[in-house]
Design goal:
By secondary structure, the chain is an alpha+beta fold. 49% of the residues lie in helices and 16% in strands. The chain contains eleven helices and twelve strands. β4 and β5 form a beta hairpin. Bound molecules: flavin-adenine dinucleotide (FAD).
Length: 399
């Protein structure tokens, strides 16, 4: 991990002097990396259940005021740059991609609230800055890549919106205290029918169910949310009715960079594991790295990881501009392809060992495959890039 930290230092001189950095790195080294393979969660009675090591990690992060880094200073948080958050995501990717996704989801729930009223920000953000986890719930059985198909009903009845329906594959299920939920307030399908609400985990009629086990990312609880006549106070509508999809898609642009960062950190971790292995493993009287084919593959991997990080840093320079949506999609598309490719090649280069479940490389590869789906699949990123290209270039005169 030290080399990765040095790489970040070269991009951002003085980064290591920031208050939280050394403590964060120490928590990853001392508590997160050693427990990576055993930290598995399950959902029981509406709650994500963890082994005791989880409590130590969360307490250490709270003590280090880590949660504050995700909320603005006016609401109990701390000022950090987008680049700093990006570095943290890469380090999470290196140490525990699933834990990184927990914080990506938490951060997106905060971003949704930033589109809310002053009262909502004052009520919820300080809680999240102190350690109440958030989650963001869009996906449903019939609304995956096409978020505009969201059908969870939110019908206005007096001072409430009554929720009926379900969400699936929701990160932080049973861990979050606050859920940003995309719901349908019009009863007809379409982007202008959707609104976003903030929902507390103890809402009447709200239950969280476990889903079948995932291949990887086992620290990340990913469950199903069910609402049965659940009365959500009307004051919990974030922004205006009908604007939920716009708000959610804006928030996801930012999430893409964070997922891309996790991909780069994870790809770097896999590269490190492979590099060490290939040096010490001898066949035909030589280390594997003395084969030109293998050393070329490793060089190629490292180059592509740096190229993926380059695209992420490029996108970070465009935050707030009209290029950001496209560049964050490009970064996520490329970084997730790189990590999946690096993982697949590393498994092969580790020989038969790489195929066994108890091997770290196998677990990291399963995490890498999960990166395809988060914040939109590769095809969805290509769709976004295509639409943005059309918006930018179809009217431009050549010459
Ligand atoms: C570990 C994990 C965590 C997740 N966390 C969350 C979360 O916190 N909140 C949340 O809301 N969701 C979450 N999701 C859901 C995730 O966002 C969806 O899985 C993803 O958006 C894809 O939707 P889908 O699974 O329904 O696939 P589908 O939309 O059914 O797509 C299936 C395949 O078809 C392709 N496809 C679909 N439409 C087109 C098209 N028009 N052209 C070309 N190809 C197309 C897709 O790329 C994909 O390969 C999570 C998923 C996973 C695996």
């Amino acid at each position: 991990m030290d080399n990765l930290v040095n790489i970040f230092d070269s991009f951002y001189p003085g980064w290591r002097e920031r208050r939280y950095v050394n403590r964060f790195i120490a928590i990853l080294k001392e508590l997160v990396i050693p427990t990576y393979s055993i930290l598995e969660t399950r959902i029981e009675n509406h709650k994500a259940i963890y082994p005791k090591e989880w409590g130590q990690i969360v307490s250490a992060l709270k003590e280090a005021h880590f949660f504050k880094l995700f909320a603005p200073p006016e609401y109990g948080g701390e000022k950090v740059s987008e680049q700093e958050i990006y570095f943290m995501m890469e380090l999470f990717g290196y140490a525990s991609p699933g834990l990184g996704i927990i914080f990506v989801s938490h951060g997106r729930a905060i971003d949704i609230l930033l589109g809310g009223s002053e009262q909502q920000k004052k009520e919820y953000l300080p809680r999240m800055a102190e350690g109440d986890f958030g989650a963001i719930a869009i996906t449903e059985e019939k609304a995956g890549s096409d978020a505009s198909a969201v059908g969870l009903r939110a019908d206005r009845v007096g001072p409430h919106y009554v929720f009926n329906g379900q969400k699936i594959f929701i990160s932080n299920s049973g861990l979050a205290r606050l859920y940003a939920i995309l719901a349908n307030t019009k009863g007809v399908q379409g982007p202008r029918s959707l609104s976003v609400f903030i929902v507390e985990d103890d809402l009447p009629g709200f239950t969280i169910n476990e889903l079948p086990k995932k291949d990887g990312l086992s620290v990340l609880p990913t469950g199903q949310l069910i609402f049965k006549d659940s009365p959500v106070p009307a004051k919990n509508l974030v922004g205006n009715e009908g604007m939920g999809l716009v708000l959610t898609l804006d928030v996801i642009d930012r999430g893409r960079i964070h997922i891309a960062g996790i991909c780069c950190g994870l790809a770097y971790r896999i590269f490190r594991e492979l590099y060490q292995y290939a040096h010490q493993r001898r066949q035909f009287d030589h280390p594997l790295t003395s084969s030109q084919d293998i050393s070329f593959q490793i060089s190629d991997m490292f180059t592509r990881i740096n190229a993926a990080r380059g695209l992420c840093l490029h996108a970070l320079k465009q935050v707030g501009t009209s290029y950001y949506r496209m560049s964050s999609s490009q970064a996520k598309l490329f970084a997730s392809q790189v990590v999946m490719d690096v993982a697949a090649r590393a498994q092969v280069l580790m020989g038969g060992r790489g195929y066994f479940r108890n091997e770290l490389i196998n677990q990291l590869s399963a995490d890498a495959r999960g990166m395809e789906y988060l914040e939109g699949t590769s095809n969805i990123q290509k769709m976004i890039i295509g639409r943005e290209l059309f918006r930018m270039y179809h009217k431009e005169k050549v010459g």
